[in-house]
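Issue 218. Parser rejects a valid record. Input:
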Amino acid sequence: MIYLVIITASIVLLSFMKDRNKTIKGLQIAYKKFLNILAPLVGMLILVSIALFFITEELITRYLSNGDQSISVLIASILGSITLMPGFIAFPLSGILRQNGVTYMVISAFTSTLMMVGIITFPIEKNYLGIHAALMRNVIAFLIALAVALMTGILFGEVF
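Output the parser choked on:
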């Protein structure tokens, strides 16, 4: 992360040395855009915090390790779609789920929808992409996540 900060600062400094006025104008535009997205972002973070409080590892494991694989994949996909968490939490959680007997196919459905489908982020996406594009992006991402889960199940011998 520190490398990105150093690279970004270096590029901004080079830009500033080349054309001071354009750099300042660009930074002002970026600041205004940041302020515009700040309120929806904070609202989304509050919703995520509330969701993570109520959806615990034990709850997820209980619903994802039942006997019917297809129902477990569907539940995992829905949970993943409505939950939002960063990868550094999602992937260790996947390891815990695997240790608790959840199949790779179900974990794949959960993590894929978790990373690709955003019901919580939909209001922000709708504002920036438009309702049609945001809806299509989420539907296509959901279908791709299901396809990835199916392929994972086939590769690990959990299906067929």
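Fixed in the parser; the record now loads. The radius of gyration is 20 Å.
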